[in-house]
Amino acid sequence: MSTYFRTGHFEKDNNPEDFKAYLNSAFGEKALNKELLDNNSSFYFVYNDAILVGYIKINENGSQSDIKDNDSMEIERIYVLGEFQGQGVGAWLLTQVISMARTKNKNYVWLGVWELNTKAIKFYKRSGFYKYGTHPYYIGKDKQTDWLMRLDL
């Protein structure tokens, strides 16, 4: 799931109890420790001086959240602080992932993005991604729909 700012930006669009349950499940200490220990998942961080302004999480092989294709790389998360959006941070992160995927001879990069996140969808389309399917994504008990988007390399 690459929700491009879902955790902060879209909090107001979700039921507070569902949103809290989602945060506890997806970003709790146990979940993050498991992700950090996974050899097929990687985190990359962007700083502006000493301020963490964004990060990206990528998955490969069996650690991909949906399509477990060894010929692909998943962008599960890409987050940029609101005050740094529109400054090229997200585009730079995306460029780095595409470069890594090419170096690893991947055929495509894919992600999931909330269907109501029109800003992110436009960003991904401008970057060459296209929609090729959907899958359910849960925020607590609330079943939402993510677009599956991919960029062929």
3D architecture notes:
α2 packs parallel to α3. The two termini are 20 Å apart. The chain has 153 residues and is α+β, with helices and mostly antiparallel strands. It is globular. The chain has a six-stranded mixed β-sheet with strand order 1-2-3-4-6-5, with helices on both faces. It has one domain: Gcn5-related N-acetyltransferase (GNAT) (Aminopeptidase), CATH 3.40.630. The longest helix is centred in the middle third of the chain and has 15 residues. It has five helices and six strands. This is GNAT family N-acetyltransferase. It comes from Arenibacter arenosicollis. InterPro entries: Acyl_CoA_acyltransferase (IPR016181), GNAT_dom (IPR000182), N-term/lysine_N-AcTrnsfr (IPR051556). Keywords: Acyltransferase, Transferase.
Any idea of the CATH class?
Answer: Alpha Beta
Spans where pLDDT lies below 50 across 5 or more residues: 1-8
CATH topology: Aminopeptidase
Q: What string, H for helix and E for strand, traces the elements in order?
A: HHHEEEHEHEE
